[in-house]
Specification:
By secondary structure, this protein is α/β, with parallel strands linked by helices. It has a 4-stranded antiparallel β-sheet, with no helix packed on it. Strands 6-5-7-8 form a 4-stranded parallel β-sheet, covered by helices on one side. The chain is elongated, with a radius of gyration of 26 Å. The two termini are 43 Å apart.
Length: 391
């Protein structure tokens, strides 16, 4: 009925005592400290029952049988949980990307999309339909999106555990069914739809649980991109997926997740100027502040001064609370690791000529000896350039 949590993961899975409202029903409770928001009413964690019992939706007051509620007894029906998914059609019709992950990520930022929920059963298929169309697929996209919305909404939350078939994986199969016009009497298209669902569910099953709607949607989309290329000859774009939702997921599986940021080797960026005392040090400081989850940031110079520019130190501490003297100091190029990206601050500084490495030139004025206003303009430009590197 349940599996033991891995020792290195912050997840505890237990079978709780019988709940007061359902004395004959076992409760599977998944908890973690600190708890994140799960219930749409009170933000408490969810619990999953082994049997359906009658519940009343807190929002629309419809009564129906379900296995899912929060530990405080709140139940929200699928229809209310998915309120707002109709707006996905407009988003998709205005979308130009041929990358279903990029489209899916935009959907996940919309207000109705929660960490987990049946909205993913619609979003996965819609992202695939939209990217397929934008990459040359011959479909009536408005009609296909409406059909996907209707089909996806019919798969309830919790299907992953109770049916043994994740709704996101099923959504990938629905996508193939829609673009091929499959019916129960079809032949090749019938087979393709089932093969797609099987591939998505196999990928989800290989990773294992607990469920994560983000991870399972990404897995389904990734398998669908490969499947469509092989069987339909349409090549959709395929992003390198790095999850940004782990802190919102009570049951995150950490390093077991194929999209976990901790499994990715970070690229190295080196910010270069003449003396490694001012602009490049500011860039390194902002890089550490804004890019540390995706890049290792360094700075160096073709020559060095004995200390970081005092005005740079003062203004960065005064305006940003960053003490550059705590962990930074002037360095020569040969004193830092080989980087994947080299960024010259300007002043005709020569970056190392390394084939295959990306080299950028920001062309920034040197603020050394200038008024604070000029200095802050340069600092602002550096901060803006650093933030652009996240995109």
């Amino acid at each position: 009925m349940f599996q033991e949590a891995e020792a290195d993961l912050p997840v505890l899975i237990t079978v709780a005592a019988v709940y007061e409202r359902a004395s004959a029903v076992d409760i599977i409770e998944i908890t973690e400290e600190p708890m994140k928001e799960e219930c749409l009413i009170c933000k408490a964690p969810l619990e999953y029952l082994n049997e359906d019992i009658e519940m009343e939706c807190e929002l629309c007051h419809k009564k129906e049988k379900s296995k899912t509620r929060c530990i405080n007894g709140h139940y929200v029906c699928n229809e209310c949980h998915m309120q707002g998914t109709d707006s996905l059609i407009g988003l998709c019709l205005n979308e130009t990307s041929g990358d279903p992950v990029e489209i899916l990520n935009r959907m996940m930022t919309m207000p109705f999309c929660h960490m987990h929920g049946p909205e993913h059963h619609v979003m996965t298929g819609m992202a695939l339909l939209t990217a397929y169309k934008n990459c040359g697929g011959d479909i009536d996209l408005p009609k296909a999106l409406l059909e996907m919305n209707n089909r996806g909404r019919s798969v309830p939350g919790g299907a992953c555990g109770f049916w043994g078939a994740c709704g996101a994986g099923i959504s990938a199969g629905m996508f193939i069914s829609i673009i091929t016009g499959a019916t129960p009497l079809g032949k090749d298209n019938f087979g393709l739809s089932h093969k797609m669902t099987a591939k998505a569910l196999e990928a989800i099953g290989e990773v294992g649980g607990p469920r994560c709607c983000k991870r399972d949607s990404y897995l389904s989309v990734s398998r669908a991109v490969d499947f469509v290329k092989e069987n339909m000859g349409i090549e959709m774009k395929k992003s390198d997926i790095v999850c940004t939702y782990s802190r919102q997921n009570n049951q995150c599986i950490g390093k077991r997740c194929p999209f976990s940021a901790v499994n990715r080797q970070k690229k190295k960026i080196a910010f270069i100027c003449v003396h490694n005392s001012c602009r490049s040090q500011i860039a390194e400081a902002f890089g550490r502040k804004y890019l540390s989850d995706i890049y290792e940031c360094y700075s160096a110079g073709t020559e060095v001064k004995p200390q970081i520019n005092p005005d740079a130190v003062r203004l960065m501490k005064q305006e940003y609370g960053i003490d550059m003297e705590k962990d930074q100091y002037p360095k020569l190029l040969q004193d830092i690791p080989e980087a994947d990206i080299y960024v010259s601050m300007g002043c005709n500084v020569a970056c190392p000529n390394i084939p295959g490495k990306k080299i950028l030139n920001w062309g920034l004025d040197d603020p050394t000896g200038q008024e604070d206003a000029f200095f802050m303009d340069v600092i602002g430009q550096i901060e803006k350039n650093i933030l652009e590197m996240r995109k």
